[in-house]
Design goal:
Order of helices and strands: EHHEEHEHEHEEHEHEHEHEHEHHHEEEEE
Number of helices: 13
Distance between the termini: 15 Å
Largest sheet: 7 strands, mixed
Radius of gyration: 22 Å
Strand content: 15-25%
Helix content: 25-40%
Number of strands: 17
Shape: elongated
Strand order of the largest sheet: 9-8-10-11-12-16-17
Length: about 400
C-alpha cells in the first residue's frame, strides 16, 4: 500500500505485497507496509525513453512543476458559481500536493473545461497532444464521459472525480466519495450489530435511485431483509404518504434508513413522527450526507449512525491549505490532492509501467488524506470508511475506518 504524503516532509512511498508481485519489482520487502527500495530499477528507468513534445508558451503558463512526466489536470476553473470555486480549490490542492511531495519529477498541465462536456473533451485532447501520460479530472459526469472517450483512444488512463459510477469503466477510475460505499459500510455495520430487518425512506431523485439499488443488494448480500422501502418527492406535502406507509411497516423492523442531507432527513423524521413512529425505538442510519450540522442539531436524528471518511485527515489538510492560500478548501479538494500524490508516488517508484491498469487496481490499495482507497477493475472505488454517531457536538466515531483492505479483496 502506498501511504500518500500528507505533510512536509513527505513520507517515503511504500509498496504493498500485492503491488510488488504484480509489478514484478525485485527487492521489495514482503511485509504489507514495508518500504520498496526500488532495487533493479535505475533512475533512468523511471522515465520513458520517448521524450514528449516541447511545451508551448501557452502550456508553460498553465503548468505546475517542471518535471519530465506530464500529467493533465482538467477542472472547471472558469465555471460559474460553486463549480468554479470547487475547481480553483482543487487546483490549489493539486499544487499543494506537489509542494509537499518535495517537487516530484512531474508537470501538471492545468486545463480549464469551463464545466462543460465540450470543454472537457477539448482540454483532454489538448493535454494529450502535449504529451500527458495520465489525466486527473474532470469533476462532472458528463465531462468524464467525453474525456474517457478521448483518453481511451490514446491508451491513457483517467482518474476522475464524478460521484456517478455509470461513467466509470475501463481506464476511467473514479477517485470520489461514491454513495455506494457509504451504503455498503453502514449496512455491514448494522448487520454486525445484530440488526436484520430494514425499512427505508428514500428521496425520489438520482441520488436516491443509486442508494436504493445498492441498499437492497447489500442487505440481501449480508443476510438481512428489506421490510419496506418508499420514495418521497422534494415536495414536503407529498412526503406524508410515504412516511405513513413506512411508519406502519416499521413495527416489523429494527433499522430505518434515511439517506438524505440535512433538510431532507429532518423533514423525513418529522413526517415519520407525525405518523406515530418513535424513531428512538429503531436504529436510524444514513449516508455520508449526514455529515452536516443540520443533522447534528436535530434531536430526532441524535444517535443515528452514518458512514463517512475519518475527519482527522481533512482537518490536518485544511490547516495546511489555509496556511498556504489564506482560505478554507472545499471538501472535495482532498481528492485532487490524493490524485496528484498518487501519480507522484507511482512516477517515483514504478518506472515506465507506472500507470498500467495492474498497478492502478492494486488490491492492497493506497492510503490518502481521507483514508485507504483502491480502484476496482470496473473503474469504481472502495474506501475505508468510519461509522459515526450523530450527536449535538458533531459526528462521533463509533467504528474507526480500516487502515488496510482485507486479504480476501473485500
Amino acid at each position: 500500500m502506498f501511504p500518500l504524503p500528507q505533510a512536509r516532509p513527505p513520507a517515503q512511498p511504500r509498496l504493498g505485497r500485492r503491488s510488488a508481485v504484480r509489478a514484478g519489482l525485485a527487492g521489495c520487502l514482503a511485509a504489507l507496509l514495508s518500504a520498496c527500495s526500488g532495487a533493479g530499477v535505475s533512475n533512468s528507468d523511471l522515465f520513458t525513453s520517448n521524450s514528449p513534445p516541447p511545451p508551448s508558451e501557452q502550456t508553460a503558463r498553465n503548468a505546475i512543476g517542471t518535471g519530465q512526466v506530464r500529467v493533465a489536470l482538467v477542472l472547471p476553473l472558469s465555471a460559474s458559481g460553486n463549480a468554479g470555486l470547487a475547481g480553483q480549490s482543487m487546483r490549489n490542492a493539486a499544487e499543494l500536493a506537489l509542494a509537499e511531495f518535495n517537487n516530484p519529477n512531474i508537470q501538471l498541465l492545468v486545463k480549464d473545461d469551463a464545466g462543460t462536456a465540450q470543454g472537457a473533451q477539448q482540454a483532454a485532447q489538448q493535454a494529450l497532444d502535449e504529451g500527458a501520460e495520465i489525466i486527473i479530472g474532470p469533476l462532472f459526469a458528463h465531462s468524464v464521459s467525453q474525456v474517457g472517450q478521448v483518453a481511451r483512444g490514446r491508451g491513457v488512463p483517467v482518474i476522475a472525480f464524478s460521484t456517478d459510477s455509470n461513467v466509470a469503466g475501463r481506464g476511467v477510475y473514479l477517485l470520489s466519495f461514491l454513495p455506494e460505499a457509504d451504503v455498503d459500510r453502514i449496512v455491514d455495520y448494522a448487520i454486525q450489530q445484530g440488526k436484520r430487518s430494514f425499512v427505508a425512506l428514500v428521496p425520489d431523485n438520482a441520488y436516491g435511485s443509486v442508494v436504493e439499488a445498492e441498499f437492497k443488494q447489500q442487505v440481501s448480500r449480508k443476510g438481512g431483509r428489506v421490510v419496506a422501502l418508499e420514495r418521497y418527492p422534494a415536495d414536503g406535502g407529498k412526503m406524508a404518504d410515504a412516511a405513513k406507509l413506512i411508519a406502519q411497516a416499521a413495527t416489523r423492523a429494527d433499522v430505518i434508513f434515511i439517506p438524505d442531507a440535512g433538510e431532507g432527513a429532518a423533514a423525513a423524521a418529522q413526517a415519520l413522527a407525525a405518523n406515530g413512529l418513535n424513531l428512538k425505538r429503531l436504529q436510524v442510519v444514513g449516508t455520508g450526507l449526514w455529515d452536516d450540522p443540520r443533522i447534528f442539531a436535530d434531536p430526532a436524528l441524535e444517535g443515528g449512525w452514518f458512514a463517512a471518511p475519518d475527519s482527522g485527515g481533512f482537518r490536518s489538510f485544511a490547516g495546511r491549505y489555509r496556511a498556504r492560500y489564506g482560505q478554507d478548501p472545499v471538501r472535495t479538494a482532498t481528492l485532487a490532492y490524493d490524485a496528484v500524490a498518487l501519480v507522484a508516488a507511482l512516477v517515483k517508484t514504478q518506472g515506465p509501467q507506472r500507470f498500467t491498469p495492474e498497478l492502478l487496481t492494486n488490491a492492497s490499495g493506497f492510503a490518502g488524506i481521507d483514508g485507504v482507497f483502491r480502484f476496482r477493475a470496473d473503474g469504481t472505488n472502495q474506501r475505508g470508511l468510519a461509522v459515526l454517531r450523530a450527536t449535538p457536538s458533531g459526528g462521533q466515531v463509533i467504528a474507526p475506518a480500516p487502515r488496510t483492505f482485507g486479504a480476501s479483496g473485500t
